[in-house]
Amino acid sequence: MPIMWFYLLTNVITQYVCIWGVLILTTECTSLAVTLIVTLRKFVSLIISILYFQNPFTVCHWLDTLFVFIGTLMYKEVWNNLGITRSQPQKEDKKN
């Protein structure tokens, strides 16, 4: 088997797995969460590509990295959850 056919087959299989995972994810999560997860996956793919092909990681890449992670933390409301657990104990439900 020529190597290009192998690469093509590998690419088709990995794309199928990716699409299958996204379809399952859409049944379990909201559309916004799915979009966020897919964006993070693309970001990780970009970082791996930069490292593998030894391209320069510029200041713009660092800013984009910062924006991606800040956006993720804002969406998941990490700062609000950390503030609640540190400053306020959780209230127990009263049973009557």
What does this structure look like?
- By secondary structure, the protein is mainly α.
- 78% of the residues lie in helices and 0% in strands.
- It has one domain.
- It has helices spanning 3-28, 31-52, 59-75, 78-87.
Write the layout of secondary structure elements.
Blueprint: H1 3-28, H2 31-52, H3 59-75, H4 78-87
Quickly count the helices: 4
Give the end-to-end Cα distance, rounded to a whole number of Å. Answer: 73 Å
Q: Can you give the helix content as a percent range?
A: over 70%
- Poorly predicted parts: none
Domain module count = 1
Rg for CA atoms:
20 Å
The largest pleated sheet is described as:
none
The geometry reads as: flat
Number of β-strand runs: 0
- State the oligomer: single chain
Question: What fraction of residues sit in β-strands?
Answer: under 5%
Sequence of secondary-structure elements = HHHH
Nearest-integer average pLDDT:
81
Category by helix and strand content: mainly alpha
